[in-house]
Amino acid sequence: MKSSGPYQPRADWLFYSCNNMVTRTNSRSRKCTLVPSILISIRDTFSHQSLKQYYLTFLSYLSLNLQFKMSRLFLQKEISVQDLEKGVEFEVDGNDDYSSEENFDDVVYDKDFEVLAEFDDSVKPRFVTGVDIPFSQLKRKMTPVTDDGLILKEVLKQGVGCPIPEKSIVYIHYVAFLEGQKETFDSTRLRDKPFKFLLGDGKLLPGLEIGIQTMKKDELSRIMVNPKYAFGAMGCPPRIPPNAEILYEVEVLKFIPGKDVVEFEEMSPEERKKAPFEKIIGVYHCDSQLANDLFRRKMFKPAIARYRRIVTLFEEVSAANEEEDEQRKGYLLKLYLNLAQCYLNIQNPKKAIIYADLALKIDSGNPKGLYRMGKALYLTGSYERAENYLCKAKKHKPYEKCINEAIQELEKKRKSHLDWERMFCKRMLGSEEETQKPFQFQEPADFVEIIDNEINKFIESDKQELFFQPTYLESQLDVVKYLAQAYNLAYVSKIQNGVKINKVVKKKCLS
User: What is its EC number (predicted)?
Assistant: First the structure.
């Protein structure tokens, strides 16, 4: 939907309103109410006879747009155009279970998940038609960018990753305002074309460029520029009056990182292996900041992909001397520790063990490495080894809360596991055999208990066969075999039509 002439600024505002529809949300009932005043304002905007068709088009678009965007939240009933005009309350289905078997492939991640994770419903509204708030009032919410306080900034929407490196190719949208004027004097949004420039080449006003240097990808900010960093005492008549302060609203759409990263991306795989160490460090600083930001947003799988990319660079690079090699090991230590933590967070302890072990090969006494190794071993049911690493970590950090809590949790779990083993052996082998050494499962006690419960339910049922997933590991199948034998059941494993079948069968039904 486009309008021209005097309706253009209002049309821009409508698009913004459509995507940022004002709602009131009751977090307990999960109900939302569209504020009809926005729709009244929209209707008034298109009150002109020739534009009434746009109003109906807009309502239809909004209805579809809401249903599309809210489909992830499972609306309990559809929203009609008539409902929108009246103002409508809609309810979100509470059974929004997105759970499915998740793919933990390191380099593959759901882009929709990333978009949802980055969604920020606290984004402050942009100025589109003009600024009716005094600049002095806006300045109170801003922070200085320069020591002299003549360039100020307010973040409207947080960005991701690292600040824009120097000599980056940057793509932005901006809107420029003068105080008290109803219309913007310069806007890439009205031209519907982003502005592309090389950061540091002097094409922008100094104040605007300095402000942009502090921004990140996807960030939306207001930048207030003093005349000293803008058009000066003379201004630029007739558009810019003398001594004019300029307010910019800038959105960083994307950037191609600094010189080191750009040059590195253009290299062949063989050239990358021979790249100077300084260039690798430049790539590290940019990529690691982005990975850390993804981690803070709990986007662990894309963070893992970023960390592993940098690990590959450092593992393949050749250090020119001992000093460079020490630096390389220091960077790898941080990356291995971060990867271990990421894998712990996505419940993949086996890979967490791999990276914690790599970290400890660089620094055997690193408290974080010892702690993360202990946590990972605990999750795999290796309680004795876990205790060993956690106790070593405690020697380095005796008062660290998370280490002490992990040790206490381990003690409770190990005691519960031993009690369960004694009870199981007593039940299976008789009280006189209780003192015999119990079978040592490689799987954690929780898994053994689950299989034990499943088999007990199977025995009490009329079913003759109980199937287990073909993806079970050998250590998991060992548990199934052991329990099947203990309960006098037959364990069967075979390939049928190219599919592996694992099951236990009641012996009376075997021919």
Answer: 5.2.1.8
Q: How many CA atoms lie within 13 A of 409 on its CB side?
A: 13
- Range 179-206 average pLDDT: 86
User: Which tokens hold the place of 172?
Assistant: 């932005």
- pLDDT tens sequence across 120-131: 434 555 654 456
Q: How confident is the model at residue 182 (pLDDT cuts 50, 70, 90)?
A: confident
Cα–Cα distance measured from residue 166 to residue 189, given in angstroms and rounded to the nearest whole number: 25
Q: Is the pLDDT of residue 373 over 80?
A: yes
The answer to whether 253 and 171 are in contact (CB under 8 A) is yes
Per-residue pLDDT tens digits for 463-486? 889 999 888 888 888 888 888 888
pTM of this prediction? Answer: 0.46
Calculate helix-pair angle for 367-379, 349-362, nearest 10 degrees: 150
**In Å, how far are 130, 150, 187, 369, 390 from 10, measured between CA atoms?**
11, 32, 14, 57, 62
Contact of 376 with 359, CB cutoff 8 Å = no
Could you count the other beta carbons within 10 Å of the beta carbon of residue 506? Answer: 18
CB 264 within 8 A of CB 275: yes
Judge whether 32 and 90 are in contact, CB under 8 Å. Answer: yes
Instruction: Please state, as a whole number, how many other Cβ atoms lie within 10 Å of the Cβ of residue 478.
Output: 15
Degrees to nearest 5, angle at CA 452 with 455 and 386: 155
Position with higher pLDDT, 338 vs 486: 338
Question: Which pLDDT does position 212 carry in this prediction?
Answer: 94
CA 442 to chain centre: 33
Q: What is the rounded CA–CA span in Å between residue 119 and residue 469?
A: 37
Strand spans (E) along 194-284: 195-198, 220-225, 246-256
Question: Which residues of 186-245 form beta strands (DSSP E)?
Answer: 186-187, 195-198, 220-225
Strand partners, 187: 175
- DSSP type of residue 164: P
Whole-angstrom distance, CA of residue 364 vs CA of residue 97: 43
Rounded to an integer, what distance in angstroms lies between the CA atom of residue 145 and that of residue 204? Answer: 17
Read out DSSP for 300-330? HHHHHHHHHHHHHHHHHPPPSSHHHHHHHHH
Classified as helix, coil or strand, 267 is coil
